[in-house]
Amino acid sequence: MSEIDSHHDGPGRQFVREAKVSDAEFIASLQAASLTELFDDLSLDTPVAAQDLIENWREAVGQQSGGRVVLIAEDQGVSVGFAAMNEGEILALEVDASARCQGHGSRLLAALADLADVPELSMWLLPEQSGLIGLIQSAGFGPAGKRRTLESPGAPLVQHLWHATLDN
């Protein structure tokens, strides 16, 4: 597994690389923290434990091939974010709260676009995910006019589909 050269900001500083199975704990921890933050913003009492997510991420990272990709953003040797994609659908794009607004999300998104073997990227988001919506809009994503409802304790969650056409 290697560093993705086009998404590197100087030697040893900020870059994106393919995830390894040993990254599963970091990925699960960051995802749990991000989901907890989102659910708190939505006033939903839905606990998310990283321990419950680790095995799923080990499997996902271990099965990368074709259109399945899991990436890690690093800053001076420290993992600060991750992204996951399957056949052009971005399943996750998270950056640690302490490392946001430093270009890591943009680097992850650019790396996903470079690795995609499809004409379009898409991502389902809740309207409350304004930071992530701003990021993908700045990268050329727009609303696709589709939505879906996910059942959750307390209230259903309505996600909207965002998409961008790639210049391959």
Automatic annotation (TrEMBL):
Highest taxon of the source? Bacteria
List each coiled-coil range.
none
Sorted alphabetically, the keyword list is: Transferase
Annotated PROSITE patterns = GNAT
Known Pfam families for this protein?
Acetyltransf_1
Task: Extract the Gene3D superfamilies matched here.
Answer: 3.40.630.30
> Would you tell me the protein name for this molecule?
GNAT family N-acetyltransferase
Where do the N-acetyltransferase domain residues begin and end?
14-162
**Any GO MF annotation of the entry:** acyltransferase activity, transferring groups other than amino-acyl groups
Q: Which InterPro entries match?
A: Acyl_CoA_acyltransferase, GNAT_dom
